[in-house]
Write a structure and sequence with these properties.
The protein is mainly β. It is built from no helices and four strands. A hairpin with a 6-residue loop joins β1 and β2.
Amino acid sequence: MHKQEETLVSQNGLRYTSKENGSPFRDIGESGDTMSCIKCGRHRLRRNGIFKRYLNSIMFFCFDCKPAKLTQ
């Protein structure tokens, strides 16, 4: 469930005065190429994950969920 927050309607008719402006992805960087991990659901940069075949489809997994294998 979503966290319930108490909000008040201000004099000018706006309700959400405490909400931050902008995108939640603004701190990611210039590239902005993010994908959602199929296992944990977090948005990660594409370079911080790997594409694997899962359920007969190619899915994105972050390196936290599926660590990269070291090649020798």
